UniProtKB/TrEMBL annotation:
It is a multi-pass membrane protein. Pfam families: BioY. The lineage of its organism: Bacteria, Pseudomonadati, Pseudomonadota, Alphaproteobacteria, Rhodobacterales. The chain crosses the membrane at residues 29-46, 53-71, 83-101, 108-129, 149-171. It comes from Tritonibacter multivorans. The gene is bioY. This is Biotin transporter. Keywords: Cell membrane, Membrane, Transmembrane, Transmembrane helix, Transport. InterPro entries: BioY (IPR003784). GO terms for molecular function: biotin transmembrane transporter activity. One of its GO terms (cellular component) is plasma membrane.
Amino acid sequence: MERNVVLIALFTALIAALGLVPKLTLASGIPITAQSLGIMLCGTVLGAKRGALAVLLFVVLVAAGLPLLAGGRGGLGVFTTPWAGFYYGFPIAAFVTGLIVEKWNGSNVSVVAGVAAVIGGIGALYLVAVPYYMVMKPAGLGEAVLTAMAPFMPGDLIKAVLAGLITGALYKARPSSVLSRAKAA
């Protein structure tokens, strides 16, 4: 129990720290950061439940006003923008990513984690973020995909590969530390 709490807090801090990595701001005003790599790692390393809890804690801390998002943003106001679908989708993305790693018994953990990060960390996230953008903007599907999805895909795919490689290396070095692969997780 205590170990789970510590790991959830640690991965919440990891997501926050990855928001400090120098960002690239698109013309739309939304920054590209490494925070989504943290979301993916929560799922690939911690598993579905712990990963989602770590990300949910991050979202709650942002809502409470902590400036944990790129550019030092935080507070309830960030949840009213067309981009808030990403924040709402973060815990879902971590959960789906973790669930795939837990259920898929492939022997190559790097590949399993990388594919899970693509399906959960990208696919599930955009299934929430794009429709949310369409409603809040309002915008059609084409505009939403071109504005809220397409510019992020190359970086997201790189982050998914990194999540797979990091998880695989961690599993090779210390298999018991990758809780998503533990039989009694």
